[in-house]
Amino acid sequence: MKIEQTSIVEYEEVDTHFRMKLPALFQRFQRAALHHSDSVGLDTQTMVAAGAVWILNRIRVKIQRMPGYREPLTVRTWHKGSAGFRAGRDFIVSCGDEQVAAAASQWLYYDIGRKRIAKIPEKVSAPYTDEPDEALESGAIDFAVDKTFEPEQTLTLTTREGDYDPNGHVNNTVYLDYLDTLVNRSGVADGSIGEVGIQYLKEIDRDVQAVQGGLVKDNDTIRFRFFQQGTVFAAGFVRTAETL
Question: Which pLDDT does position 244 carry in this prediction?
């Protein structure tokens, strides 16, 4: 089963060039995934009541171009199947007949009561049905992440009340807001972002009032991580469109 959502790019979703912001694109991914779960009777409230939630573990996105202000766009998503405690989900973003972005993601099934990752029950996986299509090349989700590099530049990022979702931690799309701020204020990106890979390593809870964003540029790749002292919350890489 494939799910699609069509909408337009709103004013609050665009930057000073009237192009869609990176966090807004990731919010569209999240909405599409939630809509798919809602459609098969596994909405977040139902799952929480049953004692489990989906947690985004990692996602990789390739962007041909960002949609513009008031431009209609369609997000298509599908379940790639599950094995053990992991499930795959892909996305395609189109403006009319033009594909403008594609993504592959990996999700974990989390048992709230036992506070740990758990094997995905068949009754949870089966309703989505499995689709074999690949949005990105096979194996794209298995990218390497450097959690220990020494940053060339750092930036303090204060958490805000609006960053937290119903699960009580900073929503995964907010990390892209942090990343957008980090990359743009550092001045290391020569051009628009063409590819992002991020792995979520530890939740940012309400007792964390600020995190450090750090990055280093290595040839055509910008490595980043969000951390506080010895704890790394997320890490990944960015490449500009001009280097792809």
Answer: 56
